[in-house]
Amino acid sequence: MIKTLANVLIVNFWIGNPLGRKKVIWLAASIIIIGAILQCSAYSIPHLVIGRIITGIGTGLETSTVPMYQSELCQGDMRGRLVSAEVLFVGVGISIA
Description:
97 residues; mainly alpha; Growth Hormone, Chain: A
């Protein structure tokens, strides 16, 4: 898991700078949707695993981009709560899933 997170951060480093944060967030959302479609349509274990990997890449891109974007846009007194809430909701969603 740690190695996968490091790989996603490296990917985000390479595509995040030329695209910008908004486009990376849209790209991550699109990758998550593609992974979710693959998971919903899976009839075999390998198909499901591929969907999970694709969804994980999208979630990694989103999780590494959104807190930075939020901290740039929100007011100083709300910054900690908003950034923490995003990470909390991702963790709760993963736990529920």
